[in-house]
Amino acid sequence: MALTHHQYSPPALPRIVLTGIGLTSPNGNDLATHRAALLNGKSGVQDYEIRYVGKTLAGICDYDALKHQNRREVRRGTRAGSIAIYSCNEAVIDSQINWEAIDKSRVGIYLGVTEHGNVETENEVYELSQFDYDVSVWNHFHNPRTVANNPAGEAALNMGITGPHYTLGAACAAGNNGLIQGAQMLQLGQCDIALAGGVSESIHTFGIFASFKSQGALAEHTDPTKASRPFDKERNGIVVSEGGCVYTLERLDDALARGAHIYGEIVGHCINTDATDFVLPNPERQSECIGLALQRAGITPQDVDILSTHATGTLSGDIQEISALRRVFDSECKVSINNTKSFIGHCMGAAGALELAGNLPSFTDNICHPTMNVDELDEECSIPGLVLNEAKQLENVEYIVNNSFGMLGINSTVVIKKFVS
Amino acid sequence: MSPAEIRAAVIDILETIAPDEDLSNLDDAKEFRDQMELDSMDFLDIVMELRKRYRVQVPEEDYENLVSMASTVSYLEPKMADIPAE
To answer: What are the backbone angles phi and psi of residue A264, rounded to the nearest 5°?
Structure first.
């Protein structure tokens, strides 16, 4: 594949590894439960109702917020902040870092979001309407709830983290982008531990449902568990979901020095931009994004074992992503291709991070979880390697590639390599 | 509202804004912040809830009257006397 970018080679950078995972998904509140659901065909999509839109569908999380927050913190904060607090705390616990002993000024938080502030603003405007729009009753928490750094900031406050905290806006590519940002900040020496990933509270804003509906891109189905169906001929749109997934990232040397369990190594990544449309994806740019991520990882398409697609179940988007994949992977490739949204819907800002997490156990069990709900494959979405409806046993999984794309043409791909000590 | 009803209304507000607190043994004579975890945003919440629930305005220069339950009730008594009990 021709790459036209400037061929700058950065100096050798520290290797970055994943040493902890904290997540809440519509089908599980830890990695083991989420993974089991993906292997057993368990959906996380259910009936849902929201102001003005009425009855619809959504992926809803049922994590225990009071595990890491008191009730006042839950009331005062945002849902995205609460999800961030849960996911960050769980990522630290999972990493078995001696949290009490470490220097909190050397911990950074990097969380992707699709959007932030819509939920809070909508709720407050609705409440204002009950008071005849008398702004003297406007909530004084409006500003701290809606500032763009809120989710990462709430997690920092909860955990006493005094290093940098970023909330990165990157539409639906955000989960990957949080991960990439965290890795880069570790490589720059800005922190020693990065809590990185993405969060989403988007099911609590009517606007996102109404907007997808106006666009003809909101999924409908009489059976909620069958509504999210990327690549299927009968797909009719997106199921909006909430969720969070945060990784503990460390430089390899630090992780080895403390004997950490290593889930995998971030060996390549790329973020690029379509610059062609507000909403419609551009397969040419997407394929360049994947190709550049592989090149940076020092591998070829033939080396990839599993590719987790971004596909959301829209008519056009799924076709465009498969078209991008066709440009990268030929019939000689062994790649197995799957999709997580078919189980849990679209977790927006958390999607990239959550979808990667559900695939990481493949490094250990060599099983590729399927895309479910594909009763009849859309011919335009057909590509060799699609794993449909049944999990697939592979010989060996060494490289996992994770796609995450978003509106305004933002594309991101992350390449994770199995770590062998 | 009688002083007892005003007290009950304030307790209800405190239960909303500080749901982790046990208010059953609240000493009316002692300052709130000596027996509860309340920060400046919580005090603003008390003011806001009084405004939303009872249309009672507490100007900033009067905030000092909200330090304890006893001082709060006596401050609110003339402002809430004509409000019917719920």
So the answer is: 170, 170
Residue A36 is encoded by which pair of tokens?
A: 């089991």
% of chain A with per-residue pLDDT over 70: 98
Q: CB A76 to CB B41 under 8 A?
A: yes
Dihedral sign of CA atoms A364, A336, A390, A18 in order? positive
Of A70, A76, A140, the CB nearest to B48: A140
**Residues 5..34 of B with a Cβ closer than 8 Å to A: which?**
17-20
Yes or no, beta carbons of A137 and B51 under 8 Å apart: yes
For the B3-80 domain, the top CATH level (class) is: mainly alpha
Mind spelling out the 3-state secondary structure of B22-38? CCCCCCCCCEHHHHCCC
- Decide if B84 contacts B1 (C-beta within 8 A): yes
Number of H helices, E strands in chain A: 14, 14
What topology does CATH give the domain A267-417? Peroxisomal Thiolase; Chain A, domain 1 (3.40.47)
- The total of other beta-carbon atoms located within 10 Å of residue A294's CB is 24
Q: Is the pLDDT of residue A5 over 90?
A: no
For residue B47, give the chain A residue with the closest CA. Answer: A137
Binned at pLDDT 50, 70 and 90, residue A351 comes out as very high
Tell me how long chain A is: 421
Those of residues 28-67 in B touching chain A at CB distance below 8 A are 37, 41, 44-45, 48, 51-52
Region A16-257: CATH code: 3.40.47.10
Q: Do domains A16-257 and A267-417 have the same CATH topology?
A: yes
Find tokens 């000689």 and name the residue.
Answer: A332
What is the pTM assigned to this prediction? 0.96
What is the complex's ipTM, to 2 decimals? 0.90
Question: What's the number of CA atoms in the CB half-sphere (13 Å) around residue B44?
Answer: 11
